[in-house]
Specification:
By secondary structure, the chain is an alpha/beta fold. The protein has 3 domains: 14-157 and 283-344, FAD/NAD(P)-binding domain (3-Layer(bba) Sandwich); 170-279, FAD/NAD(P)-binding domain (3-Layer(bba) Sandwich); 358-466, FAD/NAD-linked reductase, C-terminal dimerisation domain (Enolase-like, domain 1, 2-Layer Sandwich). The chain has helices at 23-34, 50-55, 57-74, 90-114, 173-176, 193-205, 224-237, 291-294, 330-344, 373-378, 394-398, 427-439, 444-449, 459-466; strands spanning 8-10, 14-19, 39-43, 118-128, 131-136, 141-151, 155-157, 170-171, 185-189, 208-212, 240-242, 246-253, 256-262, 268-273, 275-278, 282-284, 317-319, 358-360, 365-370, 384-389, 405-410, 417-424. It is globular and about 70 Å long. The protein binds nicotinamide-adenine-dinucleotide. Nicotinamide-adenine-dinucleotide is lined by residues 160, 189-195, 197, 212-215, 220, 246-247, 279-282, 327-329, 359-361.
Length: 475
């Protein structure tokens, strides 16, 4: 709410204003400025970056790299090298991770300046479909009329019903990315992307990690054969994985958090953990933005409704990224941002990717794009599925990581690639080839005939495609 006692300055009308400086917002701003649109970018942080850079993708991947180093050092005896137990300096670890974030976000800040984008540090809300009010960081309130606006406010973590507020013992993903100590025990609530990635970090640091997931398996929605590769390793890494189990209550105490757990048979038990991480999903940040005043329609889950150009129900307002629908992934936001900027500049564009890759950066990594086998089953769509276990890969053997899988989901008539799934180290890098293949409308033969370097994990894509062909004698 505006304090009537405070002055409101009027800013000059913006051709384009972007609310939210994450990978969607800054990509949209850069594209718009490069096309010659006068652009204003608004975000509460001192530099752009959004949740991905400050509290998500980048800090978590820095910590996962450290987890990988620790894990590989522990596996040294397998190949005849023994290291001493590592000494972990958490202050140094945090400052290394923070330095990465600072370097990347200040880099974005200078790109904003170079492009002559006006950057306003503050929080904005719509007054109507043509103007915003901004609470600027210095305490000033300003009004900004605009011709077009892009909403790129992202998402925030969901809390459990009745959950006590985040504290040093009850963490959300942001808190978990700043470890002050290595807890003796940690309960991770939610066996999704965040729970498994951060659970992997804490387990590598030496914490006894328990994961509780309310559905029947980890990473719901991901093909089970890929998840089983990960589950095999997590069973050894985590103290326990409790499936079909709900958390009924969290009670913070001086020496830990008492957690009431209810299993699949309705049996209740109480267990104490030193810390708890709540990672039960994210919801779109579409509240408190004055969207109703601007005539922007939001669905019952809080996602802003958009068309193929990412235009909302208000013709001057566009929305991209997590706030505009699933999947809530940074790279999807970036591409939507560019589409919206180009549409605003009058280009004939639409956001219609053939495939959006998804990666879970665990060990092994899980990555997929396009149609999954589960989706094919639900759609009753006939597909051919070919798989190659990485026990057949020479490169995987030399990495001491033969647990992995590459699979192709192919149209049985045309042999066009409809989906790609990967489990194994580096799966997140390898999936890009699958996405390119799909965007280029490749058939399995294209992958089979593309010479892949040997010995690499990328060969598994070519070799999986080869698996299709013995059934066609004469080729
Ligand atoms: P998620 O949707 O991936 O997983 C949440 C999990 O919590 C689900 O498995 C769900 O069944 C479970 N759950 C929900 N309520 C529960 C309860 N009361 N008790 C136990 N389990 C419960 O959500 P997330 O891990 O919080 O991640 C949020 C979003 O952030 C993801 O959708 C993803 O798009 C994004 N993300 C992506 C990456 C990546 O790309 N690598 C990493 C982290 C987050």
């Amino acid at each position: 709410m505006t304090d009537p006692a405070r002055d409101t300055d009027m800013r000059e009308q913006a051709r384009l204003v972007i609310v939210g400086g994450g990978p969607g917002g800054y990509a949209a701003a850069f594209r718009a400025a490069d096309m010659g649109l006068q652009t204003v970018l608004i975000d509460p942080e001192v530099n752009p970056g959004g949740a991905c850079l400050y509290r998500g993708c980048i800090p978590s991947k820095a910590l996962l790299h450290v987890a990988q180093v620790l894990t590989e050092a522990r596996e040294g005896p397998d190949f005849g090298i023994t290291f001493a137990e590592p000494r972990i300096d958490l202050a140094q670890l945090r400052s290394w991770k923070d330095a990465i974030v600072t370097r990347l976000t200040t880099g974005l800040g200078s790109l904003v300046q170079k492009r002559k984008i006006t950057y306003i540090q503050g929080r904005a809300r719509f007054l109507d479909e043509r103007s915003l009010e901004i609470d600027e960081s210095g305490g000033k309130i300003t009004r900004l009329p605009f011709k077009d606006a892009i909403l790129a406010t992202g998402s925030r973590p969901i809390a459990l019903p009745g959950q006590p507020p985040a504290s040093p013992r009850i963490l959300d993903s942001s808190g978990a990315l700043n470890p002050e100590e290595v807890p003796g025990s940690l309960l991770v609530i939610g066996g999704g992307y965040i729970g498994l990635e951060l659970g992997t970090v804490y387990a590598a640091l030496g914490t006894k990690v328990t994961v509780v997931e309310m559905t029947g398996g980890l990473l719901p929605g991901v093909d089970r054969d890929l998840v089983s590769m990960l589950k095999r390793r997590l069973d050894g890494l985590f103290a326990d994985i409790l499936l079909r189990t709900r958390v009924e209550r969290l009670k913070e105490q001086k020496n830990g958090v008492m957690v009431d757990l209810v299993d699949r048979d309705g049996q209740k038990r109480t267990q104490r953990f030193q810390k708890v991480l709540v990672a039960v999903g994210r919801r779109p940040s579409s509240g408190e933005l004055g969207l109703e005043k601007a005539g922007v329609t939001v669905d019952d889950r809080g996602f802003v409704q958009v068309d193929a150009q990412r235009r909302t129900s208000a013709p001057t307002i566009w929305a991209i990224g997590d706030v505009a629908g699933e999947p809530m992934l940074a790279h999807k936001a970036t591409h939507e941002g560019r589409t919206a900027a180009e549409a605003i500049a009058g280009r004939k564009v639409a956001f219609e990717p053939r495939a959006i890759p998804a990666v879970v950066f665990t060990d092994p990594e899980i990555a997929w794009c396009g149609l999954t086998q589960d989706e094919a089953r639900q759609q009753k769509r006939e597909v051919k599925v070919v798989k190659l276990p990485w026990s057949a890969s020479g490169r995987a053997a030399t990495l001491n990581r033969s647990t992995g899988l590459t699979k192709l989901i192919v149209d049985p008539e045309s042999e066009r690639i409809l989906g790609v799934g990967l489990a194994g180290p580096g799966a997140g890098e390898l999936i890009a080839e699958g996405v390119l293949a799909m965007e280029m409308a490749a058939v399995a033969d294209d992958l089979r005939l593309t010479i892949h370097p040997h010995p690499t994990l990328s060969e598994t894509l070519m070799e999986t495609a080869e698996e299709l062909f013995p059934r066609h004698p004469g080729r």
